[in-house]
Amino acid sequence: MDQDSAQRLRFDDPAALADWHNALALLRTHDPVHWDEGIGAWIVTRYADVKAGLYNRDLSSRGPSAFMDLLDAAGQEELRELRSFYEHWMVFSDSPYHERVRARVQRVLTPRAVERRRAHVREEARRLADAAAGRPVDLYAEFARPLAVRVICDLLDIPAEEWEKFSAWSHDLIAFISTPRPEPVRGRVALESYRAAADYVRRAAQELKARGLTENPILAVEDVGEAAMVATFAQFLTGGCDPISAAIGNAVATLLAHPVELRRVRDDDALVGSALEECLRYETPFTIIPKVARTDTAVGGVRLLAGSRIHFSIAAANRDPEVFPDPDRFVADRTPNPHLGFGLGAHYCIGAGLARVELAEAVRVLADGRARWERVAPPTWMSSFGLRSVATVPARIEPV
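Request: output the structure for the sequence above.
Response:
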């Protein structure tokens, strides 16, 4: 494999997605600021360039807007309402709107508020593991996904009988913007889920106030406007469902594939923290951070024109051998481990604290010795450009 192979690589090719880590390594070595004709964007893969890019104020975070610009005129008009919705997500916005929303929702996710949820997360993880014991099980469908959905729905005060419906909305909203290029069919599905979520937020805001649940993220941004309320609800829902279920599923699959390292974690609870960080590095759930050049700018020594779409590949950066010795090896106590799984800078993942609690408690249940977890077949992986996630983790949980 050489520079010519790297320059021809396209992530709208299913083969590139199927050989994910090798494809990213090829780019990192031979074409670290890569123009991908298939997706119409630059892909940046070296750690130093990705880190610098996440601090670069010449770049805008309005990636989904530029993504939807790839649609034809009719498609853009049909999905205009959906575009406005994504533009109000905190993660996809710039100053001053970004700061206004972030300052308000941070109150919901203070370290103390997150820590208060740990016991509930542990209880849910244990309940799911016990329910799956003694039979063949898919640990993504019956452990990772429901754990993530239950925790975020509890935070959002969503009734248990509606969890599956909200999980489906989350999937639809993420699936559209996680593809290499916008697909109108997925866009229409996402539009319907957005409208359903918007209707829910309008009703829920009044009910939450009547119940005195003022710490809900919806009400935290009420003074910013209805669009911010709907977008904030959607960002919490999708962030809590899809990347977190991916993170949990990836971590379980990774640890089961490395029984020696899992045994070390089982023997020493102090390794749980470093093990979950290594899981985030080794199989990064959110794989890219999309940006758009406001003006002509340089990225990794390459001059890019204003309006260029740029995908900073945190998945590639997290396996850069210049930063992580033997990067394709899983090491439960890897130190230091400056992975970029939660991003950096002003847009650092606001839910990182809650994500770490969920991962820690999932790993503790896996490693606590009350049951023997064994994989019965290799995991399968979802085919997605923006989200790296197991699709299935075939396993058995046998009580000891």
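DSSP finds 19 helices and twelve strands in the chain.
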